[in-house]
């Protein structure tokens, strides 16, 4: 199959979705490809129920609600190819062709990589892996599933603390297990969880899980005490972080800095016609916030529009000057 478009966006997370909206402002036909089967990227996969606080004008918004509004803002003209991964990049003059892993060929004038951290997978918790989908999970998709349950959260980063705090008011009990005595999470989150009276085991690890048809309890080895305690647990969240890979993008000739793509002030990479924005983009002084990604998306799309058409102004004016963008 072949598809022609003006702009191909790789990544359907917040940055990619906002870029699709801004491309509509600039009158660009847009295709969005994402390896995940649903829109929203990391937000949808990792924390749809968590509150996000760094989006301008929204004091707090749940991840799933932000994604829904971004999709609505992008409009109906965007073509989405979900559950597909971009594999190969070929060039014929000014036209780029990206092949996906299901052999779709997308001919485009420009590519914007907005893939966050690239493809990612959670770090496994071997002791509880056999109960995956039967009480053990790496992401929380619905807080209601944890109501009145005994919940064990494993991890010491921001995600672990955020889940523990979010679940504490509705779960029957919340216990946090962290293998170190220091947390990577914000100190204020740790203090707040302690203030609420949640049980916290540090220098400890989950070594075993038990249950008949589903998870019923876990064993926690407490290194400092030299003993093992058995905790009731109908639910376990392994918030141990995740590993990220750029995958086939590494073969595209892009200048890389670790897992990130180096860009200039116009968000262009060293490969003509290929741009990057959001967490995956790298430049001196980079700050990885969602709000920064939105600005980078607009910058990239404006430069792409001007690249495609020399007569198109780099700055199209403010959206308030033109009124609502037609659906």
Summed up, what is this model?
FAD binds at residues 15, 34, 42, 47, 86, 120, 279, 320. The chain has 327 residues and is α/β, with parallel strands linked by helices.
Looking at the overall shape, the CATH architecture of the largest domain is 3-Layer(bba) Sandwich
The CATH class of the largest domain turns out to be: Alpha Beta
Q: Give the overall silhouette.
A: elongated
Q: What oligomeric state best describes the polypeptide chains here?
A: single chain
Catalytic activity: [thioredoxin]-dithiol + NADP(+) = [thioredoxin]-disulfide + NADPH + H(+); 2 reduced [2Fe-2S]-[ferredoxin] + NADP(+) + H(+) = 2 oxidized [2Fe-2S]-[ferredoxin] + NADPH
GO molecular function: thioredoxin-disulfide reductase (NADPH) activity
Cofactor: FAD
Organism: Rhodococcus aetherivorans
Question: Which secondary structure elements does this structure contain, and how are they paired or packed?
Answer:
Blueprint: E1 2-4, E2 7-10, H1 14-25, E3 30-34, H2 41-46, E4 51-52, E5 61-62, H3 63-74, E6 79-82, E7 86-92, E8 95-100, E9 105-108, E10 110-113, E11 119-122, E12 136-137, E13 150-154, H4 158-167, E14 173-177, H5 187-195, E15 199-201, E16 204-210, E17 217-222, E18 227-232, E19 235-238, E20 242-245, E21 256-257, E22 260-262, E23 274-276, E24 281-282, H6 290-308, H7 319-322
Parallel strand pairs: 1-9, 2-3, 2-10, 3-6, 10-23, 12-19, 13-14, 13-19, 14-15, 22-24
Antiparallel strand pairs: 4-5, 7-8, 8-9, 11-20, 16-17, 17-18, 21-22
